[in-house]
Amino acid sequence: MESFPEQVSTEMLLLAFLYTFAAFAVILVILGLGLIDMGLVRRRNVLDTWAQKFTAAMIGGVGTLLGGYAIWQWSFNQAFGVPNPLWTAIKDWWIAGRLASTPAMHVDTTITPEADVLQVFLVFFVTFSMAAMALIHTGVVERAKAKPLYIMSFLIGLVLSPLVGYLCWGSVSPLTNRGVHDFDGVFPLYIFAGTWVLVMAWRVGPRLGTFTPHPSGAKPVPHNVGFVAAGVLLITFAAPFVALGSGYAVPGKGFFGISYTESGFGLVVMNVIAGLIGGGLMGAAIAYRRREPSWTFLGPIAGMVICGTLFDVGTPLSCLLVGALGPIVGVGTTALLRRLRIDEPKVLPLAFGPGVVGAILTGFIAWGTKTGGFPGLEGEYAVGHATITPWWQLVGVLTTMAVAGIPCLILCLIFERFGGLRVSEETEVIGLDAAHWGMTNFGDDLDPPIIAVPGDGATAYGAPQRAAAPN
């Protein structure tokens, strides 16, 4: 078999290592989300929360591994004039495809340069789909049935999240070529997952005791808010590495955003920390003002998300100031959700609200900045042929919301008709750990005898007997 040593030069291997590190940094984000959930759910739901999040992430990942990445590569095949661009991308990049299964040294550089990097980027997309599902699960913890969530996970990983990436995230993506700008995956991750959560949380309903007292005394009580701090610190550590994976590192030429905007390694890292600190300071001020300590820990996340589209084209000062707006948007989103009686205190205030506001705000801050295209191409795919504008940012937001919201509503209605989206009331009162696994993460939450609980397809579960601790 012919070899192409330039595919495995030192430069190519270092680039592949950069993207590998970025891809697996996303796993730390998933771990951070799990710790945040662990701290905020009831004690008796901790085990099931981890099990559902872990499984949903894996199912979403395998969907992208099987073929979702090919949808993103479709845009490059279109730009380079490859015949049958979508079908060719699928044949090349599904899990058993030619380019996904061949060592880089044996891939012709005239057909696919930087094959190692593209293969690692497939993994980056897989972990992004895993993170999207971990985020969606966070929005419906303690009440969503596992089976509907897992079916949704597969469809999201296989088609829907990669479709948003195809449209909005990439230098030759259709909407990017008209002026839509993203950098840190705000459209395919935060806005997509936030829209899905908005629809699903509305359809699945609030947790027992959220807005009105429940006869059993059940209510959503945080288990240990300290875990939230640990989760946020993990996400904070991972954030700059994920951001650096969201662009093109071109040896001898520089670092560019994913839409080929001019940027730099150091600038992106400074912008990330400025956004985190801006959000953290404002979150702390809100926490002390409202006597809600969780904002101390969640503020940096809101600051990071609201700056996600700005990291490559902004400055540290602009990211510090915009990051400080993140928690303010989060508090406003929370107040609106309470008025609408939608029980979702994490994903929508931290990801959806700041993501949407930040994306549109970037259109004003970076108005006129050149974007889109790919080196060596001309005409509609020439580098910098498009410009960032507020209205195209709004088009990107609305398109993402449609791609997520419409399928989610259809799937929710189907599941409501055939088996339901939500666990039974009895199961929610008893706790999902005991109901689904016959055990809990905390041994003192489960005390024999075993009793039967109707619904959810199970036969017998352990029941807590401590009447004084219904939560």
UniProtKB/TrEMBL annotation:
<dbReference type="GO" id="GO:0005886">
    <property type="term" value="C:plasma membrane"/>
</dbReference>
<feature type="transmembrane region" description="Helical">
    <location>
        <begin position="148"/>
        <end position="167"/>
    </location>
</feature>
<feature type="transmembrane region" description="Helical">
    <location>
        <begin position="347"/>
        <end position="367"/>
    </location>
</feature>
<dbReference type="GO" id="GO:0008519">
    <property type="term" value="F:ammonium channel activity"/>
</dbReference>
<protein>
    <recommendedName>
        <fullName>Ammonium transporter AmtB-like domain-containing protein</fullName>
    </recommendedName>
</protein>
<keyword id="KW-0472">Membrane</keyword>
<feature type="transmembrane region" description="Helical">
    <location>
        <begin position="320"/>
        <end position="340"/>
    </location>
</feature>
<feature type="transmembrane region" description="Helical">
    <location>
        <begin position="295"/>
        <end position="314"/>
    </location>
</feature>
<feature type="transmembrane region" description="Helical">
    <location>
        <begin position="54"/>
        <end position="72"/>
    </location>
</feature>
<feature type="transmembrane region" description="Helical">
    <location>
        <begin position="12"/>
        <end position="33"/>
    </location>
</feature>
<feature type="transmembrane region" description="Helical">
    <location>
        <begin position="391"/>
        <end position="415"/>
    </location>
</feature>
<feature type="domain" description="Ammonium transporter AmtB-like">
    <location>
        <begin position="21"/>
        <end position="441"/>
    </location>
</feature>
<dbReference type="GO" id="GO:0097272">
    <property type="term" value="P:ammonium homeostasis"/>
</dbReference>
<dbReference type="InterPro" id="IPR029020">
    <property type="entry name" value="Ammonium/urea_transptr"/>
</dbReference>
<keyword id="KW-0812">Transmembrane</keyword>
<dbReference type="Pfam" id="PF00909">
    <property type="entry name" value="Ammonium_transp"/>
</dbReference>
<dbReference type="InterPro" id="IPR024041">
    <property type="entry name" value="NH4_transpt_AmtB-like_dom"/>
</dbReference>
<feature type="transmembrane region" description="Helical">
    <location>
        <begin position="225"/>
        <end position="244"/>
    </location>
</feature>
<feature type="transmembrane region" description="Helical">
    <location>
        <begin position="187"/>
        <end position="204"/>
    </location>
</feature>
<feature type="transmembrane region" description="Helical">
    <location>
        <begin position="117"/>
        <end position="136"/>
    </location>
</feature>
<feature type="transmembrane region" description="Helical">
    <location>
        <begin position="264"/>
        <end position="288"/>
    </location>
</feature>
<keyword id="KW-1133">Transmembrane helix</keyword>
